[in-house]
Protein 1
Amino acid sequence: MNAPCALEFSGLAKSFSGVRVLTEVSLTVPAGHTLGLVGENGAGKSTLMNLVAGNLRPDAGEMRLNGVPHAPASSAAAAHAGVAFIHQELNLFPNLSIAENIFLTAFPRLGGTPVIDRSRVHARTAALLTEVGLALAPDTPVERLSTGQCQLVEIAKALSQDARLIILDEPTTSLGAHETATLFALMARLKERGIAMIYISHVLADVLRLCDDLVVLRDGAVVGQGSCNEFTHERLVSLMVGRSLTQFFPERKNRPAVEPVLEVCNLSEPNIVHDISFTLRRGEILGVAGLMGAGRSELARILFGLDPYAAGKIIMEGESLGRITPKQLIGRGLAFLTENRRAEGLCLEASIADNITLVALRDQTRTPFRLLDFNRWREAIATMRRAVRLTARADDAQPVRTLSGGNQQKVVLAKWLLAKPRVLILDEPTRGVDVGAKFELYQLIFELADRGAGILLISSEIEELLGLCDRILVMSRGELRADLPRAEFDREKILQAALPVEEGNA
Amino acid sequence: MKTSWWLERGLRQAPLVLFILILAIFGALAPKFIGVANLVNIGVQAAPAGIVAIGMTFVLLTAGVDLSVGAIMFVGAAVAGKMALNGAPLWLALTAMVGVGAGFGVVNALFITRLRVAAFIVTLALLFVGRGFALWLTQTRAMNLPDAFLQLGSARMAGMPLPLVLFGLVALLAQGVLGRTPFGRQVLAVGHNRESASQAGINTTYVLGAVYLLSGVCAALGGILALGQLGAVTPKFGENYEFKAIAAAVLGGTSLFGGRGAVLPGTVLGALLIQSVENGLVLLNADPYLYPLITSGIIFSAVLLDSVRSFLLERACRRKIRMEAAD
Amino acid sequence: MADLSHAAAKSVTDRLTATLRRVALSEYLVLWLSVIYFLALAPFTPGLVSPENLVNLLVALLPLFLVALGQTFVLITGGIDLSVTSTIALSSVVGASIVNGNNGWLAGQWFAAPVAVLAMLALGAAVGALNGLAITRLRMPPFIVTLTGMMFFSGLAIWFTQSKNIGGLPVAFTRLGGNGWLAGAIALATGAFAHLMLTRSLFGRWLFATGHNARTAYLSGVPVRGVTLAAYVICGFCAALAAVLYTGQAETGSPVLGQRVLLDVIGATIIGGTSLFGGKGKVLWTLCGVLFLKLVDNSLNLLNLSIFTITMVKGGVILFAALLDATRHRLAGSRP
């Protein structure tokens, strides 16, 4: 068979603000083949796919689609060229119907008039929906659909645009068993029609079963490539984990005390988390591992009083916390660095000074009128800037927006440290941070623990957890799967526990 | 499950429920109120603000706002009045009026889409410019127009008053554009999220520009009907129409945050609702000073219901990690 | 040769661009504009520089400044208050009906004036509180809450007086607005207090944080709802204080008092530099904005231009300021 390959990459590279996320990626997907793309979080899978789908542009290298050079200027151009990207976050308009979402920019019309030919839209949508196996009326509003149904609508949209390549990014994360089966059956049918697919998933058993070829990415480079039957589950895991060359961790001196600062007992919330229990000790760094959508951030939000919980108990320093607001929790010594730095961690347009002092502002004021004591205020800012080693080049009055990711994260950390917290929840503290700043953040985390704070560290980088933590909890589908002390740390064990268990395979 | 569905349904139809409630209450208090003649009358009185509100609906659907509609009405009326008084035929004066509306709409659109100034400020500024210009045209005096204008207001077409026919036609056409053309559907998409609409390949500049043009034209049409009822251009002509129009649209279920709403029944119902309250209060010989109190109270409750609905919807759409109940 | 002159021209243009950029990015741009405007018009405008006119100008801008001051607080949180004008009207008629000499509730009593003023201020704060509660507790959009508020409270003022003005106000009451010195002192004190509050108080910092990013603020322990509510209460209070001055200046309580200043209030605040999207605003900016708008008003009046020209020019000025702001943002974004 020497038909033109549906998709060819040669030597693709991409960096974000100096950090290399993809290096020399070359691969091919023949028409009618399904390529499995696996790798840990942050290995560069999503970046690679965003290049194909026109959301990003490569720094070097070439893409060819059906033999023709492919350099889409926008996602619309990529769609026009026959590439459909089905995201984890779906891109449908909930206020429109299924049919309208599918034909939004290509409505069939009545003759030469600008009037939508409703019967044709209806008929074609109905045909597409039958094709993808969705038994719904074409004019159902999309906001009524489940995530799985939305995914099928996206595929129907791809088919309507005559896509030759469909990229599925973690499509099964939020699907039930039945919906997953529907999706797989559909994929088999698409394959018969000669459509090329790239399937990204953490469920390795699915990847091995569905795909023809496999590519393993690690740190932005291809580390394994070949036909699917050359791989086993074990080999994939070891390829994905690999050996990390560049990362190193500061020396940890103290060991945690036995005294608990935060105890969580049988915490449950329907559809979110189920029966979570653990204890965080003074001076301990407790890691939480898991895949995206495992419920780690949701757990953190419940602990910080942002979301409700139906059952269970949260005990901080011996006192049970009922329904309690973030403000009260901060008063009790809890701090929460959220995963969404820009939307929830910072006031981007406000100055560095204002951001650093936001939480502990009350301590910088003088009674009787609670006016700011500018001397104390400036002193606090200077102290914190030294403590987190914030770049000296930035002025206190400069908007935080102008800082690099690493320095922004230091500002968030400084903001919380100023309030002298006794328990810190850190959700992906090093996401989007370059290597040098990462090391400094690690040192800060150690210093905090050495001073007796309990730290709950959520991270998608297993290396980071292994290097920093005294103990690691592993979550999957809202449940606690493993609780490993340092002596039992093992990359493969963690990954195995994090992968969702599907019926039949493990 | 069942109760929440009913609750949602009820909340979604809040304007209709309110409308029926008001018809029932006033009907019981003043039987004349629900007579055909009076209902037709309500429709005629609601027509000017209703048509302006239809244009406003398009703007609100894109998450924008057009504060200049009242000024557009005034400028259009002043221009048409001047022309008529100088002997221009009626059709020419009215065409000029629509042209003025379109012109203002284009200026709004240019500033908002090309120069990226916030719609609120652009249309606020044009409100000033427009009112000032029209005051200059009329020399701040009331201008009595030829009888042709008043006849326009009382003319009949197929047995129905002309304003009502026009109101109905505009509403049908607008709902057709909104519901049955690609443009209309794209307006909803842009209003839901401009960024993802643009990513989906929609020309958002064109869509945004077009809604302000539409709003300008509708304001001019509303102005024509208002002229037909008054027969004169006063210095207060068109004043507060921007607020009336927003109120009617919001009352009809159009969201100020874009992406949600409809002309039919939505905005038309909203306009009729406000007018029937005023009409009913007149029939009951209520203290006229109470009208704004009651009208604003009704608008407030409709918006309150809407915000409760979106709160419930948001809670129902919370992301799920686990599939606890099998599907 | 050609190259050289080209380079020289380029360096001149560069320097010019740099200067323009510095002026455009200055936070007191409007103040500079006012000064330039004043100097440019002074030779052609009879009486513009006369002491009486300057005093008139300053006295006339005081109440507008107070309303705009309150609006600044609300805009900083990212909200808007359209009900300020009806708050002015309502407090005006309530105050006047307490204090007037004909049939006032406290007619002729020595404490009538202070009680009336206190009642007006309390009423303003209460209207603000109602707005704030609907916005923070019922999660309704500020625009529509305060729009219905505008209709309701102005309707209430008209119903309350049956659309009649209330005259016969005692001097003890009208002096507050009528006497330039007293009015100036009130406005100055309020402005200074507000300035202190915005720049140095805990509440001020919370206000900005709420406007910058309410989500971040909430997660950082800022009582976002309380702060937002307080901003609307302050806005209502300031409007009522302005009503005291307006009523004093007009010497009557009127249910349509201030009906025409809504767009002036928002326009002046925005021209000063306060953002409609929250997180930005200063008392001095607002003062500059009000000064500029009133200066335009005053000079056009002196030029014997009619009300309609003034209205038009005002619209142009607002649009110009908004364009300038949009350009400014683009410039700031392209800063190295």
Protein 2
Amino acid sequence: MDFSIMAEAFFALMEPVRLLLLFAGVLLGLFMGAMPGVGGIAALATLLPFVIMMETKSAIALMIGLMISGNTGDTLPAVLFGIPGSGASQATILDGHPLARKGEAARALGAAYLASMIGGIIGAIVLTVTLHFIKPFILSFGTPELFMLGLLGISMTGTLARGAPAKGLIAGCFGLLLATMGYDPLTANLRWTFGTTYLYDGLPLIVVALGIFALPELVDLAVRGRPIAENTKIEITGSLVQGMRDTLRCWFLVLRTSVVGIIVGILPGLGGSVTDWFAYSHALQTEKGAKDTFGKGDIRGVIGVDAATNSKEGGALIPTLALGIPGSTSMAFLLYLFTMHGIPAGPRMLINHPDIILTIAWSVALANIMATGVMLLATTQTAKIALIPFHWLVPLISVFIIFGVYQASLQAGDIIALMTIGVFGWLMKRFGWPRPPLILGFVLSPILEKYLQITLVRYGMGFVTRPLVLIIAIFILFSVYVGVKHSSRETHHEGGT
Amino acid sequence: MRYNINIWFDLFVLVLLGYGLWSISNFPTAEARQFPTVFAVPALLLAALQLFLDSRKRTEDESPAAILDLPVDPSVPPRVALFLAARAFGWILGFAGLTLLFSLYISLWAFVPPYLMVEAKASWRAAWFTTVLVAVVIFGVLSYGFGINVPNGLFLRSYLG
């Protein structure tokens, strides 16, 4: 491991502007996390047009700050109001909210914040070490294997959509197809341009991301209108320090659930919404007397979950950086940032841009420290965010979306495409069609098309007999099988109740 | 037995993919057709399967909350949600249209204060104060500070040449 590059990346991040951007990202992430219903992905999509114009390391600092701190901020409404700030904090409610009702909200929050920070730092360390050691293995992958890994990422993200594996897979394929609009990269033939020059270069990701994620969330904010915690008096009783002591006392649990978070993070498609449940069930099965006390306000339930939800980001970054296969929407946006800055994520990044990888790792660690620091200092003030009526946010976010989408190509087509895709995205959300696979497909499409063309020219259809390709194909089939089985079990369960 | 509304969206997706597959066949070269075909065919088959599965359900059950996605607020009845969503889209569309024609320099002032006063029931003082703050961030920080372009509207562009 080259420690000089590590030190260089650290000092690059310590430059005041980058540090300030990291902090701004952390604040924004905490804001989004503490306000249930807004969603960090929508915020990330809204920021994307501005972020890609920044210098690479500054953009990384801002994006990582936003991506990481949401996992810390979302604990607050989960503990205080029993409402998850995001999908990743559902299991925190089980023990966090009973603790708050017993008058020990501050203890639960103190424990959660410190566990989040330690989990996040463990994730960053594992990311750095893993990427260093798997480099030779990753470099042995050829285009057929990378093509199949891309398919694996989409199939896992698609099929793991609860109760709707077919919808997830269709959404993934739809994203792949949507990105083929415009010039075909090999022959320069036009595809699906509908006679408009706007589509010659294809749809910009900014427009698709804002349309699929930001606009539907904005409309749903307007539909909801009122704040999430209306007429609620915010009272945080108990001791933050006691909670932090609890976390240090349970250091082995923190370590174990952090590893659980990293493993779940590595698997594409699983991500935030299940990490907390995996960690909670691990703590429930392994902690002494947990079966009697969990769910009734046991601090270990909070600690286990929060360590895992923050460590998973380190895990999720491993396939994104090493293979160029994003496992979640936020990782897809990060991949897009690299593309826009001419940095190829995947095996070549490990060789040519170790400084970028280490900047990301440092950003993850620092963002976790900053988020915990802010929350420890300003928990009561941050909790008031949940009292802001959503109607106030709608025009403010609208302005940023419209301003941002115009940056995509400075054409009227940007706005028309945004509104069209926005309506489609809202319908997808309403009818229970998962949107992340669509974005993943859209981001991966140009890379996969290139890999497929190279593969077919070089190996013909014989590529399917390569051992690694076969192994990945088995994984793809297995992910589809698990998705279908899980879905049919849920359908059966619903039918039976 | 209630009729399942989900099938309308399933049908829409199926038609969209069907059109997609048909238009792929019109792409001039095999290379251009290759990649989209690989994904359009399974997507179309899956869409047909999804339509079949949903049509057999015969109940307007809760849309399965996608595990990776944000849930829909269940406290708002679907009909009310549809009306409110159409209204929200109307506001945003109006704002987008104004921006397209007259640029953000004008549309910002024509959209934010009325929205806050009508929908959020804000006082005119609070609404205008908020708008000024947003204008400072957009025009002062992002446009002037970071040099991000604020495009002229189509009307202004043609008027100013």
Protein 3
Amino acid sequence: MAAGMNNRAIRLAHGGGGRYTQQLIEDVLLPILGNPVLDPLDDSAVFPMPGARLAFTTDSFVVHPIFFPGGDIGRLAVCGTVNDLAAVGAKPVFLSLGLILEEGFSMDDLKRIALSVKSTADEAGVRIAAGDTKVVEKGHCDQLFINTAGIGVFDGTHPVSGSGAKPGDRILVNGSLGRHGMAIVTARTELGFSDRILSDAAPLGLLVETVLKSVPEVHAMRDATRGGLAAVLNEIAGRSGVGMELDEETLPLDEDVRGACELLGFDPLYVANEGVMVFFIPENRAGDALSAMKTSPYGRSATAIGRVTADSEGRVVLKTRLGSRRIVDMPSGEQLPRIC
Amino acid sequence: MKFLDEFRSGENARRMVQAIRSASVSRRLTLMEVCGTHTMAIARHGIKRLLPETISLVSGPGCPVCVTPNPFVDRAAALAGLPGILIATFGDMMRVPGSSTSLEQERAAGRDVRIVFSTLDALLLAASHTDRKIVFLGVGFETTAPTVAVSILEARKRKLNNYFVLSSHKVMPPAMDAISKGDVHVDGYLCPGHVSAIIGTQSYENLVRRYGIGCVVSGFEPLDILRSIFLLVRQSEENRPRVEVEYTRAVKPEGNPKAMAVLNEVFEPTDAEWRGLGTIPQSGLKIRDAFSDWDAECRIPVEVEPPREPEGCRCGDVLCGRLKPQECPLFGKVCTPETPVGACMVSSEGTCAAQFRFGE
């Protein structure tokens, strides 16, 4: 670790999903906890069991505010976990739900969130198989924290990892960028936006299943959450040992998100998503993958945004609208705390 | 007209670049921008790559955070450690390294340091925390200083006696003057768009007259910057340095007299230390005696550690355009955005941060 980094205490940036998070995992946690199942650091762990191969993941949710335009912490908990399983090519089956509640939390709000968990789980085709509830004194947690674990199976599909991207692959996304992060920011700050930006939180298991059935040759996948598209692309470029080139003209951005980003000084490439899956697909199959995505309600604006290159290994480069080029660096992780 | 589309249009940009190439006939030019937002915009849009290699774009001391020397951060950190103090600051100051700590580290250690988007938020904090003293860190040039001046007037009006400002505000023209007579050769300035919206263009006339260096006031979209570069190239080829305003949609030659009046009511010029440039006479803004009740430096005494510059840090040279970020021996090795040695790497408008994040 480079000199000067204060490694005696956790900083907010360690939760940002960018470089600080990466360094915390690689320098502090992995040396202690590492093992062959954990080490690939894919969205879910994949391992054989007698007669089956399973995917297993865990996630925690500390988003603030807990109710936001387009969703709530309950919906987020299901979507986040389901998408981590889908991202390795598994069919999500069961979730666990651990609740840490603050003394004084409204019972009505708890019911609302439970209903949201249920409806999202139904939509995703998963069941809550186990749960736990703890209560802490007022002031010792902020309203409600949720922890989940998820199990998925490989139903005729094979595992997809983050290290399989190959030069020549097309980079595809199923929808527009930056919705979730901007929904949270505009919900938090009293800026008086007349239209509310809605989070894109969505369970993508069925969308991914449709793509895999049509195009089993998906080389890599990952869902883009905190840290934005930039974090995911940099992670995969690093793991796969490839470079990437994005075309700024093709990045899908809704007008309201674009406007809010401009006003608040955010770069949409670094803004959190909760309903975006990034696919790396051989060039000659990209068209079929896009058609498959478009049959899903969460894939109507699916599009290609770039390609994987053999040079500039580990680097993601953006071809700008002006025809110039610049690097899309790994975010450090400090843009916004408690985004998911 | 949708600015985001027209002023970023690839086609318009190509035409402007062509115009620049056609106009760049005889000379190699060094053009300097002195605004952190310009530094970032140029890096984000990859503008340097589009220009002919006869044009060199360098960054000057345009990032108010970067030019603030260590003692200011040290004093802010020391204040944060006093009981009953709440520090309110713009986000960019949080990670700037002082002599031994940063505000972010102080917050992680339990001190009350909060990020605000504007002085209005800081005033709200003062109104709602009457048992605490709120110290707002005043960093920024003439774009920001009037809003801070207004906050002091508001505090006086509302009788908020627990609101204070620690001023490190600076003004651009004396720094541009210092650079113009310094050892870095500059053929033309891209002048800061929003500072100029406040101060107008008179100070640039002085630069033209004294040093024969052309000045174009530029906006922040890629097309603004490209057009401003074109105008500077044309000035040079015609051998007619002068003041031109490209950013006509925001800048008038007389500036914003109301903002200047408020600024001058609350602040007065003082000598100030700029990282890399040393002390420049009359380049800083000090709160006038009439408002000393809201001046943290006057009213809240605190012991501050002796300043220490980090070893090997070349921020000063980078800020004057003497050194490119990648020429600094610490760049990218010991000094990165996560482990910054100096302010230029950590500030959201820092020259080194721009180079590291966007590459060239």
